Amino acid sequence: MKNKTNLLFFVLSLMLLLLNTSCYSIIFGDREFSMKKGVLYRGKETYILQCFYAPDTARQGAELKTMVPLLASIGEVGGNSVAMDLLRDPNSTSVEAQDLETIKTYANRAKDQYMTVILRIAPNSQPNKKNPLLNTLKQNFKGLLTIVYWTDGPYADEWTKAMKKINKYWVIISKQNADLIITEDISQTQLPKEKVIFSASPGEQIGKVHFLLPYTKENLNCIEEAYAKYTPCTNLDTNSASSLLSEQERQEGFIPLFDGKTINGWWYLGDNHNCFAVNPEGFIEWKSKGGKALMSCERYDNFILRLEWMVEKGGNTGVWVRAPRGSRASKIGFEVQILGDSDTTALTDDTTGAIYKVVPPKVKAMKPEGQWNDLEIICNGPYVKVTLNGQVVQDINFDEIEELKYRLRKGFIGLTDHGNYCGFRNIRIKPL
Questions:
Q1: More confident residue, 125 or 9
Q2: Domains and CATH numbers, the chain
């Protein structure tokens, strides 16, 4: 009897453990926000809000021609969030149905681009039981943890408390008594981790502290300049490296992007600056995870890019083209997919030579894993042509594909880190 009791206790304990684990994964999914000891997390990773406030965004609709350029302009300079107002009029307690749909569409799009929406709730009314706005929030956003909430206005404290009763796991920004606290004081050398700088550039703390700036051209330029200043990138001496080019390529105007000896001309997107290194045989090789990507010092719009690549069997890498400084490059610029999938016959939007998650390659053109492949990417306005080992795998007009039509037309070149061994060499470019 004692053994049966122990067995029953064990089974019940195991069920409780599994239930708690399951609930945790539901509450804090891979792209959902949570707070832990004053630190903002997205899934299991810490997250720094780099936000631009465009109040009327929900009123502009969620067509790709409106939504994609806005998010792309934020990601281009290193941002990752757009803040928008829930209400058209702070004296109102109702929300237009089309505005709610726009907010949700933005939230889904932003989530897929490793970005987020910050929803500002700032009514001139208190959150009592008669206020229909409370029910609107509950019905439309109760389970939505992929966005961050911002209470403002004369009753911000009251709304923070009321919203926490709807969902205690919502991450809320406010001037006080919230998960993240807005401040305009940037005099401190090291801001507390839970502070959000409002209406001021974080300067040398860029990328380390949360900020929330009005969406203006001046502020976009300000953040771009801050990142450029505090992100180290040693330029490549193209004159000394030009000997790596063929005589014909030199005459045609090609410029080397890699000298075979150093990482000069490139910067690390992630924290691990040992992710990629130069192999003694003169190629860039993947060494360890955490670098995210190796990014060119310069941005390019129209060009011919040539390089060689290789990858291990089952491996995953790619070349980002017209990539932004922040957020998901493959969804804001585009990515030419590279996989260790030589034994796969299928041609999908996720096989080697694809425009990642949009256009499958025309043919299967990669060599067996471990061998070097020749890649050429031509970008000229909306026209993109990709040739792999002498075979054309892409020849498309971005203006004819709605998903690609509004993406960036100028950006960085990126060599991606997906945690698998790969290599790149003989990288050169000809601006058009």
A1: 125
A2: 29-230 (3.20.20), 238-431 (2.60.120.560)
